[in-house]
Amino acid sequence: MFTPREVECHVPTAPVIRSNVPGSFAWSVFHERHPELVQRVLRALPYGPGERARVEQLLAESTSGVLEPLPESAQDGAQWLAWGEGLWGRPWGEAPFLWAESYFYRRLLEATGYFGAGAWRGVDPFAPFKAAELGGASVDEELAALADLDGLQAEVLVASALWGNRADLSFQITAGVAGAGASELLVDEGALLWAELKHRPGGLVCLVADNAGRELLPDLVLIDFLLRQGLAGRVVLYVKPQPYFVSDATMDDVLATVERLRNAQPDAAREVGRRLWQAMRGGELDVRTHAFFCAPLPYREMPADLAAEFGAAVMTVMKGDLNYRRLVGDQLWPPTTAFGEVAGCFPSSVAALRTLKSDVIVGMDEATVSRLDGSDEAWRTSGRHAVVQVSVRT
């Protein structure tokens, strides 16, 4: 178990997002996305009757039942019991959306036997999806683009890492083909990110990964660039300690992606893979994890040991929608709320690279919000818009 650090930092308040409003995005995740996801999981691997029954039971409970705690035998049962204090026995929709969604994926692992003593122990239920994407034609195209790696600008590499965030199976289940339609960068503070790195070259840069496969690939290319250019002397790449939110990256996914690079056809891609392999061996690239990355909590409640790791960084780069929700708080902020006002508690300077796939958003100007609100598009959740936002810690 771990306890949140004690930090003196003023954070404004806003209503917490919940999934008990029919027709809302959060409601659709539980009543539309999860049912489709469950069926895909059960088709992807030959789970037996016991596992299948437990998964179906979880789906029924999460859509029309009440929150039940983990079995007493669960290794993290006591921790979740504490996190859910006041929620047990209440409908799932009454729990904070971030909490309930995190708990759904923890329960899914329990149902499929990931933590059990049987043969399914340690088997990633999302592995077939990740493997198919990593071996697919879209990754071949991205590897081919690395043939001109030396000619790629830093801004291009950030854009690739940013828009790669749409390579998210759980999002694509309900949103259709990722990248369909026009895309727009709503906030671009990339210049501030590069200025800060150039101002303090050779330091520690942390990157908190989101998805595996086609998203992790440009993340690793970006890390290679930071090390080659001397903008970072060392990079710590944080991944999840266990499968989480369908396509979230684990250490297995990092190794598979580096190996994909090492065996790629373009010489430039193979060289990236070779350099990353050597950087991991030499410690310039350190892949780490922490139990907190699968906790249903915002980053301002991270434990002291993890905060100390981030606090040593020149910059932390947060990838993806889930990290954004945890960084600013999964709340209904006025969109014009300053990014630094809600992300300023983070122990280092922090940059968020995020395509919008959920309701929470801050750091917008009023004119852009009015324009988008006046359109017919569900712009907060369509995945067609993105932000690069930076908070510099002084």
TrEMBL record:
UniProt keyword list: Hydrolase, Manganese, Metal-binding
Keyword match Signal: no
Listed cofactors: Mn(2+)
Top-level taxon: Bacteria
Substrates-to-products reaction catalysed: beta-D-fructose 1-phosphate + H2O = D-fructose + phosphate; beta-D-fructose 6-phosphate = dihydroxyacetone + D-glyceraldehyde 3-phosphate
Domain Damage-control phosphatase ARMT1-like metal-binding residue range list: 30-367
Molecular function in Gene Ontology: metal ion binding; phosphatase activity
InterPro entries: ARMT-1-like_metal-bd_sf (IPR036075), ARMT1 (IPR039763), ARMT1-like_metal-bd (IPR002791)
Entry's Gene Ontology BP terms: DNA damage response
Alphabetized PANTHER family for the sequence: DAMAGE-CONTROL PHOSPHATASE ARMT1
Family to which this protein belongs: Belongs to the damage-control phosphatase family. Sugar phosphate phosphatase III subfamily.
Protein name: Damage-control phosphatase ARMT1-like metal-binding domain-containing protein
Species of provenance: Streptomyces tateyamensis
